[in-house]
């Protein structure tokens, strides 16, 4: 059996879905407060002075701390069924289906958050490793269970969850530097649709 690892945003999709989900589900008050508090950090991120893996948890905390799990999950259902089909790359969806038809083990590995990714992956019958939102007493705490699933943490999460030695071949697909560590784990890797080499880092 082969293992196929797919990044989500930018690889399976044509654009970032994390930011859209946050903006679509945060209250007006949180959006205004976030715009006021986070604008300096967002500017630093745009200038490449603050990495996204450091910014995302701050945004997530502000957007989801104290929100009801059931409410966000219901909105995630709508997001998956109404919005995601508009941004899913048909060729990548086809690639996932081909892997499944060949009997390969398919896993989405993403820095995006769990509410909508769990629903999308369950609908396709594939597994998920992602930035999972922590729940307590029916509410989201705003924190991640195991941190932002990007960069080296993405690779470590794969190794901690999956026995890579049990697969005859590992194939990985990504589109940003945050995926490089994951791509290096694979025997065959693709970066933005083209063969990837560790020398490309």
UniProtKB/TrEMBL annotation:
Cross-referenced Gene3D superfamilies: HAD superfamily/HAD-like, SG protein - dephosphorylation function
Transmembrane spans: 28-47
SUPFAM superfamilies reported for this sequence: HAD-like (SSF56784)
Keyword annotations: Hydrolase, Membrane, Transmembrane, Transmembrane helix
The keyword Zinc belongs to this UniProt entry's keyword annotation: no
Pfam families in the cross-refs: HAD
Molecular function as annotated in GO: hydrolase activity
InterPro entries recorded: HAD-like_SerB (IPR050582), HAD-like_sf (IPR036412), HAD_hydro_SerB1 (IPR006385), HAD_sf (IPR023214)
Hydrolase in keyword set: yes
Recorded superkingdom: Bacteria
Protein name per the record: HAD-IB family hydrolase
Source organism per UniProt: Alteromonas oceani
Lineage: Bacteria, Pseudomonadati, Pseudomonadota, Gammaproteobacteria, Alteromonadales
């Amino acid at each position: 059996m082969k293992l196929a690892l797919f990044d989500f945003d930018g690889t399976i999709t044509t654009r970032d879905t994390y930011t859209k989900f946050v903006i679509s589900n945060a209250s007006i008050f949180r959006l205004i407060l976030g715009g006021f508090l986070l604008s300096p950090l967002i500017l630093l991120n745009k200038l490449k002075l603050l990495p996204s893996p450091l910014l995302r948890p701050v945004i997530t905390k502000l957007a989801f701390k104290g929100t009801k799990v059931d409410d966000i999950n219901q909105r995630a259902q709508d997001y998956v069924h109404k919005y995601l089909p508009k941004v899913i790359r048909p060729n990548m969806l086809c690639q996932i289906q081909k892997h499944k038809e060949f009997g390969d083990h398919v896993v989405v590995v993403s820095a995006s958050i769990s509410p909508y990714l769990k629903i999308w992956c369950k609908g396709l019958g594939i597994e998920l490793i992602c930035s999972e939102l922590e729940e307590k007493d029916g509410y989201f705490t705003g924190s991640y269970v195991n941190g932002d699933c990007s960069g080296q943490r993405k690779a470590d999460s794969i190794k901690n969850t999956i026995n890579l030695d049990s697969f005859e071949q590992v194939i990985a697909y990504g589109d940003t530097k945050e995926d490089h560590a994951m791509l290096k784990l694979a025997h065959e890797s693709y970066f933005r649709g083209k063969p990837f080499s560790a020398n490309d880092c």
